[in-house]
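S1.2 Input.
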Amino acid sequence: MKCTLSVLTEDHPGVLMRIAGLIYRRGYNIESLSVGHTDTTGFSRFTVVVEADERGMSLLAKQLERLVEVVTVEELSRSKYVERWLSLIKVRAPLEVRPHVLQTAEVFRCRVVDMGTDAVTLEVTGDQGKMEACMEAFRPYGVLEVAGSGAVAMQRTGFAAALPFSEEIPLRLSCAGIS
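S1.3 Output.
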């Protein structure tokens, strides 16, 4: 099964190589690896997607936690999480089929980021299933080039930790002076 890990690290040179090397040495193939700065200066967040069973994911998370620069490791696959991928897709779009290409792009909520005489470059974000469906929809027109970011993910917020209904604060409604 696909496992998604969120790894918070100190922002030091070589951290990417240590994380990728550890995963490689354990025999896992990295399907996606994205990294970016966080809201706190000096820290980066890695989103890593690998194919592993539950036991393998737990062992991998524990081994990652032992790296000096690693602050926390979250096994996002064990709970509800939000995941997004980004792709740029260059599609053949001569003038006679361009309206059809743009209509298909609208269905997938793609943004046009570049347009030439014979091609259009589109930006699409969503889950992996949406990326695959979008690629299949553009294939008949001619996909010229694709570049993708890989997964970026976070644990979902809020609703699971809500108070039971009986303990919630009563909601007061007010409408035209009636309360």
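S1.4 Remarks. The first strand starts at residue 2 and ends at 10.
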